[in-house]
Structures are given as structure tokens and as C-alpha cells.
Amino acid sequence: xxxxxxxxxxxxxxxxxxxxxxxxxxxxxxxxxxxxxxxxxxxxxxxxxxxxxxxxxxxxxxxxxxxxxxxxxxxxxxxxxxxxxxxxxxxxxxxxxxxxxxxx
Length: 104
What we know:
Elements: E1 9-13, E2 17-24, E3 27-32, H1 34-39, H2 46-57, E4 61-67, E5 70-77, H3 85-94
Antiparallel strand pairs: 1-2, 2-3, 3-4, 4-5
């Protein structure tokens, strides 16, 4: 079975991740939260289950990728603001700029 570099189709699943088709044969590939993996019936092996628990215990956000019934990989992201962010936001507000956070 070959692996394509560009999917034929992608669909966003708001708040959970996305699904791509055409990357791994006819199987959909899911990228997103552990919740999405569970909803789609993708199983975590022991090593990935342990690693995902470690990431969550460390306060990291977790993104998973899986297909054909298995979670194949996980990514843990630190989401810490840099120290100079407070000063930058205050400076924007002094200039009467509206400051928002874009996440997702």
C-alpha cells in the first residue's frame, strides 16, 4: 500500500481535528484530539497510551494521528506565553488596538 503526499479530500471536524482521504489507500486518516480518536474507534497501543498520559500530566496539548483502527503517532505541544507578551499586549491596548486570542 502506497502513501500519497497530498490528500484527495480533507474535512474539518470543528473542535476535534480533521479527516483526510486518499493518503493511505482508501482508509481515512484522522488528525486531532484523543477524543476524535476514541470517537472513530482508533485504539491506542500501550506505548502511545503511556506517552499520551505523560504529555497530559506535563500539561501539554495533545494531537494524535491514526488510521485503520490504530493511533499511529502523538504530538505534545507546550502552550506557554513568552514573557514579553504581557508588555506587547499592553502596548497594543495603549494604541487603542483590540487584542484577541486565536486558538484551535
